[in-house]
Amino acid sequence: MTTMTDTSNAARFREFKMPDVGEGLTEAEILKWFVKPGDTVTDGQVVCEVETAKAAVELPIPFDGVVHELRFPEGTTVDVGQVIIAVDVAPGSGDDAPVAAAPAPEPVVAPSEPEEPKGRTPVLVGYGVAESSTKRRARKGTEAAPAAASAAIQGEMNGHGPAAVAEARPLAKPPVRKLAKDLGIDLATVTPTGDGGVITREDVHAAATPAPAPAPVRTEAPVAAPIAAPAAPASVTARETRIPVKGVRKAIAQAMVGSAFTAPHVTEFVTVDVTRTMKLVAELKEDKDMAGVRVNPLLIIAKALLVAIKRNPEVNAAWDEANQEIVQKHYVNLGIAAATPRGLIVPNIKDAHEQTLPQLAASLGELVSTAREGKTSPAAMAGGTVTITNVGVFGVDTGTPILNPGESAILAVGAIKLQPWVHKGKVKPRQVTTLALSFDHRLVDGELGSKVLADVAAILEQPKRLITWA
Length: 470
Description:
Layout: E1 4-6, E2 13-17, E3 27-33, E4 40-41, E5 46-51, E6 56-60, E7 65-70, E8 77-79, E9 83-88, E10 120-122, E11 129-131, H1 144-157, H2 161-167, H3 174-183, H4 201-208, E12 235-236, E13 241-242, H5 247-260, E14 265-273, H6 275-285, H7 297-311, E15 317-320, E16 325-328, E17 334-336, E18 338-340, E19 343-345, E20 348-349, H8 357-372, H9 378-381, E21 386-390, E22 409-413, E23 417-423, E24 426-440, H10 446-461, H11 465-468
Parallel strand pairs: 17-21, 21-22
Antiparallel strand pairs: 1-2, 2-9, 3-5, 3-8, 4-7, 5-6, 7-9, 10-11, 12-13, 14-24, 15-16, 17-20, 18-19, 22-24, 23-24
């Protein structure tokens, strides 16, 4: 159910709040409005496009009417729960005063009742729920007891009062608390820099990275593609350009830092002759059973990785720091790193292990085309278990990819090149590539990681193993 708030003229005006379009997100940037004041809208009509830390999402309006007011211009970052548009659902029936001029009357609260705790606001179906930002306002003539209770609550929020003394709970949003938990940082030791003493993500990262020691440099190869931020105005001078870090680009940076400093990465490499795989790709392109789908080396590599995981299922797992458990996954949601104008995203193919080769080819094609169009949904990027990043498309031989948070392995595929290779005792030109597998050394030891990488290489060298090992 979509979040909305009626004003005192409830029968006339309805408001639409910024929903949580992904699990746990706290804000989104309005990229583009598709309507303007005076436009007629219908239930389900897309009125704007917003960008979150995960993806660009189109928002539909949940009722009919005439647009009365757009509360924020394009390029504005809005907190979840804030009203972004007001709609006149009964045009021509009365006063046209702005919706904001007539605040809704508040329900009467008995003097003995304390302020209600922060709740959860319902949002668009399938988009999850978000913490409500609505707070009860003080009213004239309020009894002393409620005022005292409100003052006590406010005192606790500001770090004073008996509850604060007992719990000493630092102020931070849920995503920041989760980040601190993932990095093993005690929020009580973090110095807040946010308004009102709120701890920000930057504060947590600062606590996790002792200054002035430089952070280790790791390369997530697909990020080498030019990154654009259309909605973020850049500051350009004769000698430099400054681009605000926000949206997907900001989320990438935070996720990669969190992963690099949380999971102990190990990367192994193998160079393999894939001449037979390239011949198989050429044959499959002419196969009538593969008609209508795109066939390329990535398809065979993806299938090879799925077979390797089936032979070594322990690699398909995640580390649960809070419960000190290794979570074995009995399904494979195969992530494919994709460079887009908004940055690197990793949508995944759900239950890829159950798909036939034609089905996997169709899924890969749909995933890539959706990513290029900028239409990848947050749900499509959630729940990945293992990832492939194809740096070879940029002509790069190999890389040391960083794990996606919550995953234990990522395979980097280098460029396939014609090289001299010893084949059947003679030096011949062969199609050769280099594979790199990064894995979380907390749950994947060198033996397991080596087996997985060796299996993928063996299949690409002799693709008939897709049949004998499947």
